[in-house]
Amino acid sequence: MRKIVIVMMMILVLTACGKPAETVPAVDSRQTMMNDIQVYLTSAKTGKTAAADAGKLIRATLPNYKGNDAEKFKEIADKMDQNKVDEVSKLYQELGGK
């Protein structure tokens, strides 16, 4: 009996620990993308080669993001792929970045 109770408690604890990816708030997705843009801009301004996959990082986060500025993030990803740092910076500031 004791073993059954312990096993049931372990099952309950283990199934309650995780949360599905689709419940990640849009705020977290937005902040993740803003951080990715900040890293891209910082590396470009310090003379280091901007991350070649920076646009891919934004695109990977976009499906979880339901904000009304999703198109602007897609545009930023396109500009990152084209290595247009000044345009990325301008769009980033329009989104509230510093």
Largest sheet: none
**Beta-strand segment tally:** 0
Number of helices: 5
- Mean pLDDT comes to 79
* Cα distance spanning the termini: 61 Å
Overall SS class: mainly alpha
Strand content: under 5%
Order of helices and strands: HHHHH
Shape: elongated
Count of the separate structural domains: 1
Radius of gyration, taken over Cα atoms and rounded to an integer in Å? 20 Å
Helical content stands at 55-70%
The low-confidence runs, each spanning 5 or more residues with pLDDT under 50, are none
Oligomer category: single chain
Structure in words:
It is elongated and about 70 Å long. It has one domain (26-95). The protein has five helices and no strands. With 98 residues, it is an all-alpha fold. It has helices spanning 2-17, 26-45, 54-61, 70-81, 85-94.
Topology:
Blueprint: H1 2-17, H2 26-45, H3 54-61, H4 70-81, H5 85-94
Helix pairs in contact: 2-3, 2-5, 3-4, 4-5
Write a concise keyword list for the protein shown above.
67% helix; 5 helices; 98 residues; elongated; mainly alpha
Summary?
With 98 residues, this protein is mostly helical.
